[in-house]
Amino acid sequence: CKQFFDRSLTKTGFGNGRTVRDIFKRSIIKHSARITDVENPSVTDIKTISEEDFPDTKDIEFTTKQVGFTK
């Protein structure tokens, strides 16, 4: 994810907080789907989001919509 954020800082419409929240939500969804395939998951399995749960960064879209104050 670090490389993704390093590249993203130069893009128009990049909203750091919004993007992080979106990535986190997607990782929870992927984690939930992965855990349903585990027979008898442990508490650690349920609580741990792994690298495979994070979305592919090329699937994340940026919005050019202005949020907040403008000049």
Kindly state the percentage of residues in helix: 40-55%
| Helix-strand pattern | HHH
- The number of strands is 0
Q: Per DSSP, what share of the residues sits in E-state strands of 2 or more residues? A: under 5%
Helix count? 3
The profile of the biggest β sheet is: none
- C-alpha termini separation: 31 Å
- Tertiary shape: elongated
Query: What is the averaged pLDDT score?
Result: 78
Please tell me how large the radius of gyration is: 15 Å
The assigned structural class equals: mainly alpha
Write down the oligomeric state: single chain
* Low-pLDDT segments: none
List keywords for this structure.
about 70 residues; mainly alpha
Structural commentary:
The chain is 46% helix and 0% strand. The chain is built from 3 helices and no strands. With 71 residues, the protein is mainly alpha-helical.
Summarize the structure.
Helices cover 46% and strands 0% of the residues. With 71 residues, the protein is an all-alpha fold.
How does the SSE layout of this entry go?
Elements: H1 2-8, H2 16-36, H3 43-47
